[in-house]
Amino acid sequence: MWHEAADASDCHIAILDKEGGILAVTAAWRRFSEQNGGDPAGYVGCNYFRACEPNAAGNGEESLAVSAGIREVLDGKRSEFSLVYPCHSPVEQRWFMLRAARINGNGPGRAVVRHENVTFAEAFEAEATRILEQIVQNELLTTVLHGVVSLLERKHTGVHCGIMLKSEDQPEVIVSQGCPAGLVEEIRARATAAMSGDFTSSLIQLANAVGRDRLNPPNAKPDDGVVAGSRGCWPQVFRLHPIRNSQKELAGCLVLCADTPYSPVHKTVCDKARSIAAIAISHAAMRDKLSLEAWYDPVTELPNRFVFQDRLQNALRRGQSRGFEFAVLTLDLDHFELINDAYGRRVGDTLLREVAQRLHRSIGAAGLVARLGGDEFGIVVDSPDAAQEADTMSRAIVEGFQAPFSVVGKEICLTCSVGASIFPVDTVEAAELVHKADTARNQVKRSGRNNWKRFDAAVEIVAQERKDIERNLREAVKSGRGLHLVYQPQTDSRERIIGVEALLRWDHPVLGRVSPSRFIPIAEENGLIVEIGCWVLREACLQAVRWKREGFDVRMSVNASTVQVCRSDFAETVTAIIAETGVDPESLELEITESALMRDLDDGRREMDKVRRLGVKMSIDDFGTGYSSLHRLQGLPVETIKIDQSFVRELEGGSRSAVSVIQAIVTLAHDLNLTVVAEGVETRAQIEILKSLGCDVFQGYLLHRPLMAESVSELLQAEERVPKEVVLPSCGAGI
Question: How much is the pTM?
């Protein structure tokens, strides 16, 4: 049995149930427990936490960490846990590695706990590898069944016993060493005939064929087996019994050969042999199942993170000792969560299995592919020319995803992003190799996905900068320091100020002035944009109220991220801020980028409708860079569109196409009763052309740069009041 092989090693292994109860331990575990003043039986039947924690009184901190980690594994919160801890004896300094792995899929379940003496890691690894090879080759089951037949033959003279294991390939017949060769073939023939179809009917047909049906006992049950006489030179009586596993499935056949007809003695012998064989087969199946679950992913049947880390460590040792290169690849599936949302987890799991098969075809025998969790996979490429092999393999993986996946009758298009790192070029640390491959992969995702990239130190610098920005931005949002608003005036055709756009600025004592183009995308990725957006809207509304009290009637335009607009509580948040600040909703305008909005059109439209009913105006920013479809905009509750400044810049060079585009936008927008704002105006020539084309509102450095609130107040005070007879454009929601 697998217990025998495990007991032959120095590995301390225990299997825990979902409550932490110890189900089984190895001999090494028992010896260690006894040598350290514990239970000689290794606390089998006891609770692991209650039994082991008191023995770690000298290592209380590590003990608590061990307990917490294993509990998370049992509760299904993590698939694995490991920790190196001291376990010194009075005569030597020893260190052990504790490893725990969940062994029955998601949710609470059993776990394998292994205490490894890492002081002698190399010796242990060789022994563990030998045991694993025996288990995979099923040699332990064969040894057990040989023991069964030999035991029965020693106990009962004049009896020969054979066992045939059911198999899709050549069935294996297990007999004692003293069984004559001719009899072995007779046993094989009997068992093969019996297991070729339904066991009971096959045996009855076999018995009738040799004319010995009278040898079968009356009122026999189907699984009692059938007695049949010899068809050849062997005068023995053959009794054939089905061997069923724990699921009652036919797993093999027991053949007992005796010199005398059926008797109670023979029945006892058959029952005993069948029982022992069934236990051995079921135990081997359970061992294989536990091994599969401990080392392989149950969905894709790929090696799991444990195996990936083990192969990575082996490659690292070979690389360090022999100077070999190897590569690490990590990949994940682009937007896989959308597939789960659209089709359900069952389709998602089926798709993951198809992905695993394609990955196998792409890498062949050149590397190990493992599922690291979720939609993330890892590959170790152990090759003399690892860098070239990594490039070739990465390209093959990406290209292998170009054809749609056929899953449960659906054609699903899926792409992936791949990152690679090379030992020792990029680093000589295992964890850093994975980290650098992840860094390269994340760069691919930020660059549009569906591609691959080898690690580049410059990429890591950018990634570190992003982390620094994110960390400092969180602190700025939490403390309220460093963030402030500036306001860029918007003017009418007479270049009088009729509105302002609130713009966010961030000044950091170390990073300096951080451009919005750097920190806004990061804030949108990590969700900070929601909190930042609320702060900006509140501050802008408060400033609009202050200007209103000073007698200045200007429209306050505030940018809103699509992440905010598409949240189900966006309109509710805007309502609360309006009530809190007392701002006039009619003087407030929210700007949403066109391309971003069109990606989430339905969710955004619902919230925009609610906000519009409050009296707040809506504007589409950067118009012309996204879908450029006024037809699609007809259904949106917007009053203003802002022509993107890229078109305005082209006017200076006399671009006829830019003039045509702007003219078309203005004409159609006015037909739809929309106000047109031209942003990015920097020269007198540009503004004159824009005025001639009919633009309503203008914004840019030629007119005014973004200013602090006090400076805007001074400009407003310097200007004459707008005469009452001058009316803002009737369609002017953006002013």
Answer: 0.51
**Residue 57 pLDDT class (50, 70, 90 cuts):** very low
Stretch 703-728: mean pLDDT: 77
669 CB neighbour count, 10 Å cutoff:
22
Residue 49: is its pLDDT beyond 50? yes
* 372 backbone dihedrals φ, ψ, rounded to 5°: -90, -15
- Angle, alpha carbons 532-535-536 (nearest 5°): 85
- Tokens 């060493």 belong to residue: 177
In this predicted structure, what is the pLDDT of residue 725? 43
Cα 405 from Cα 358, distance rounded (Å): 10
- Kindly give, in sequence order, each residue whose CB lies less than 8 Å from that of residue 186, ignoring residues fewer than 6 positions away: 230, 232, 234, 238, 257
Q: How confident is the model at residue 584 (pLDDT cuts 50, 70, 90)?
A: very high
CA dist 510 and 472 (Å) reads: 10
DSSP structure string for 50-119: HHHGGGGGGGHHHHHHHHHHHHHHHTTS-SEEEEEEE---SS---EEEEEEEE-SSSSS--EEEEEEEGG
3-state secondary structure of 365: coil
> What are the structural domains of the chain?
2-134 (3.30.450.20), 139-293 (3.30.450.40), 305-455 (3.30.70.270), 481-641+697-718 (3.20.20.450)
Nearest to 80 by CA among 99, 107, 67: 99
**CA contacts within 13 A on the Cβ side of 251:** 19
**Confidence band of 26 (pLDDT split at 50, 70, 90):** confident
